Amino acid sequence: MKYNPKYIFKCGLEIHTQLKTKYKLFSLSQTSFGDSPNTNVSFFDLGLPGTQPKLNTEALYLGLIASKILNCQIQPYSTFDRKHYFYPDQPLGYQITQFYHPLSKNGYLKLNEKFDGVDKTINIQQIQLEQDTGKKYNDKTIDYNRNGIPLIEVITDPDFENIDQVQSFVKKYQTLVTHMSVCAGTMETGAIRVDANISVNDNSRVEIKNLGSSGEIVDALKYEYNRQIEALENGRSIIQETRNWNGKTTESSRSKEDAVDYRYVPDSELPVIRIDESMSEDIGKELPELPDDILTRLTKSLELKYAKFLLNTPELLQYYDEFNHSDKNKWIFQELLGQFSKLDKQFDSNIIPPKTLQEIINLNCPLSEKRNVVREMILNPRPLSEIYKQDSPNINIDQLCNDIINKNQHLVAKLQIQPSVLQSLIGQAMKQTRGKIHANIIKGKFIELLKL
Amino acid sequence: MKRHIVKNVQDSILNKCSYRKNNGGLLSGLKYTCKDNIVTGNLSGGILTTASSNVLKNYQSPFNAEVVKLLYDSGAELSGKVNLDEFGMGSSGLNSAPGPTLNPIYPGKIAGGSSSGSAASVAADLCDFSIGSDTGGSIRLPASYCNVIGFKPTYGRISRWGLIPYAQTLDTIGILSKKIDTIKHVYSVLNMYDEKDPTSLPEELRKETPETNKERLIIGIPEEFILEDISIDVKNTFKQFILKLINLGHVVKTISITSIKKALPTYYTLATAEAASNLSRYDGTRYGSTNDYDKLDQNIIFRNRSEFFGKEVKRRIILGNYTLSSSSGDHYLKSTLLRKQLAKEFSKNFNNKHVLFQDEQFQDKCDLLISPTAMSKAPDYETFEKRESENILNSYINDVLTVPASLVGLPTISIPINGIGIQIMGQFGDDKLVLHTAEDVINNF
């Protein structure tokens, strides 16, 4: 992306993030995704007469966690308000949101060169809790399953000076909310949606609504930056308006003059949320390790790309942290993950738990044999004891196999032309060990010793 | 006005039904009617919940209001859904899509509203009691015009789950009957915390609420309620009422609550703003009346709302949206502050402590406050309509005596004394004293 030095890019974001709760924000409908239309709706979700909202405290808690990880000041007093506009996907005729007194304010997220590729602090104006809307199903039907799912809206200051910063921020934000289990999905699943406000040289700002992927954000901002420059170059002024991204261009959807007056009013059905300082501190104390701290820790002994890989694969990160060995990078990345990928299998920590890997390493046998055990376990998952009989410590497989080779030189000589005689050698070893050692391990040993 | 089409009084009042179980409960054997802005589930006979609006002309609720459930469990029989001013908006009983409610005991007079059918069904002996709702006087005014008792409890005592909101910070479910005894029994059944209603008074607060328990009461008359325009017969009856209280051993004195003067504009600012918001959901796209459409969009919403709301409802929605619009200033906020001020001022005049305020205890104040319920007896249709057509505010002014207790959430009862309604108001939460005193006065008159 080339920036014209004569035109300064400025951008701020509004990020809508679905919270990972069991129930909706104000009703006991489930929040599950992908269900048949209108199966997760309660009386309140449909706006039936005589129903009332009930605040889901799980959503409130996740909102507070998000506030903490974005370094926001949790407000001692916050309230819900109604934002009015008519649309069929909005059953109440208003959205319940936080306008006058949001949940938290004045935060920031730091981007750093080392982990994010750019040094920049983005300030956060506020975080508010609100309801998601329904979704158009077809011309005559709305699917209200999504209606009432809890969202947080995170509003940044217009601090972004270029698109790289926007991209890094969105990436980091997604990692944060996913890692902290605040949000279940990603932009790709529609769980995170972004509105971007962009201006050049402090002219009027234009809002681009509902950007659904990192790629869309980049493309839409590039297009809009160039569109605004072109307009200014041709002596036209930029009008304050809302535009939509259609995949190729941004198109005007409404200008300031015909903007909706949302007629905000406090929602007196819902209680005031009071969070005193000690509660707010307690939430800070309960937080798990943050992504940047994890990366800092991991990069002491790992390359950044491996560290990021671990961070984005929580199951593996947990494995990595639980497994203790002086050579743990080699064992996890080369031996364990190497075997999984060689065999074209998905990593699964249950197949070889950290404790089992430890036991395999401690086996009194050469590395090649340990590799065979790992391989065998992945191919045909079962307990270590069934693969490698540790209760026969007197059996020295090396010696046993060497003895058999020496006594059966006539068979060994045939091996080149008749590979099946290997089975006969294995059979003898099995007989002598009375099946205590798995055939595959013995086979591996013969292959090693005979350099087959 | 469609009233000339209505054939008979009873049809103008209720839609009959029967919903009960015989369980020997506290209220078994009693019949009641229910204002049609309180939802009833799938009762036999296809009884709908319409709020007397064409918007909900065919609306069948899938669930029962909490009050309907409690009454069913205690053995009372729901015998009809009754007429009202559309969505509770009106003080006459005339603003109703199916037609006005006729006054069964004073032919030619209005029944009062908005719980017009509730008061009329009690007056016409169609039931033992009726469940109504009171936002700014909607139980007390028709009770007074139909010569029955109407009780509006403290805000938060009776669950609003299933009451179709008009102005939710004011809406209160209450009871109308000819017998104070019946009202007390029904109240004891309905006075329950309900977790489904976020504004229901929590158990702890119910326990903490002090009750006045003494024989000799100090009763105050706010001088702001003694208005010049009050009719002679109301004034005379009110005087007799005061004398009776003194005879019964109570002390009666005049007090002043200056904020009462601002109560009416405060009320209409808040109530219409809340109404505009609450009624936003009636767009015909999920339930209720709708025009045909090929595509679900805003246009069908605008068409439905323009066509199916009544005139007075539209007027209040427009007033409310004006208040809420960004260009009108901060009237809603200002009114909220005035309301708080009014609540404080009321509370300072009671001996009993307000359970929601941290104020110090006051002494030598009042245990109860009294005033007339209405400016006059029920006016006749022609007079009412003429005044309303001269200036729409004339019908709003009617609420001047009832609105203050609504804004403050006080338990208030209107009792008929020689055909005139008199209001008794208690401290927030002191419902029992209000009921007990009403019983005492009624039995001694």
From TrEMBL, chain A:
TM stretches of this protein: none
MF annotations from Gene Ontology: ATP binding; glutaminyl-tRNA synthase (glutamine-hydrolyzing) activity
GO biological process: one example: mitochondrial translation
Record domain Asn/Gln amidotransferase: where: 329-447
Keyword annotations from UniProtKB, A to Z: ATP-binding, Ligase, Mitochondrion, Nucleotide-binding, Protein biosynthesis
InterPro entries in the record: Asn/Gln-tRNA_amidoTrfase_suB/E (IPR017959), Asn/Gln-tRNA_Trfase_suB/E_cat (IPR006075), Asn/Gln_amidotransferase (IPR018027), Asn/Gln_tRNA_amidoTrase-B-like (IPR003789), GatB (IPR004413), GatB_Yqey_C_2 (IPR023168), Gln-tRNA_amidoTrfase_suB_CS (IPR017958), Gln_synth/guanido_kin_cat_dom (IPR014746)
Family designation: Belongs to the GatB/GatE family. GatB subfamily.
Function: Allows the formation of correctly charged Gln-tRNA(Gln) through the transamidation of misacylated Glu-tRNA(Gln) in the mitochondria. The reaction takes place in the presence of glutamine and ATP through an activated gamma-phospho-Glu-tRNA(Gln).
Subunit comment: Subunit of the heterotrimeric GatFAB amidotransferase (AdT) complex, composed of A, B and F subunits.
Protein's recorded name: Glutamyl-tRNA(Gln) amidotransferase subunit B, mitochondrial
UniProtKB/TrEMBL annotation, chain B:
Main location: mitochondrion
Catalytic residue list: K35, S114, S138
Keyword line: ATP-binding, Ligase, Mitochondrion, Nucleotide-binding, Protein biosynthesis
Reaction(s) catalysed (UniProt annotation): L-glutamyl-tRNA(Gln) + L-glutamine + ATP + H2O = L-glutaminyl-tRNA(Gln) + L-glutamate + ADP + phosphate + H(+)
Superkingdom classification of source: Eukaryota
EC numbers, comma separated: 6.3.5.7
Cellular localization per UniProt: Mitochondrion
Transmembrane segments: none
GO cellular component: glutamyl-tRNA(Gln) amidotransferase complex; mitochondrion
Main EC class the enzyme belongs to: ligase
Function: Allows the formation of correctly charged Gln-tRNA(Gln) through the transamidation of misacylated Glu-tRNA(Gln) in the mitochondria. The reaction takes place in the presence of glutamine and ATP through an activated gamma-phospho-Glu-tRNA(Gln).
Family: Belongs to the amidase family. GatA subfamily.
HAMAP family (UniProt xref): GatA
Protein name per UniProt: Glutamyl-tRNA(Gln) amidotransferase subunit A, mitochondrial
Biological source species: Candida verbasci
Organism placement in taxonomy: Eukaryota, Fungi, Dikarya, Ascomycota, Saccharomycotina
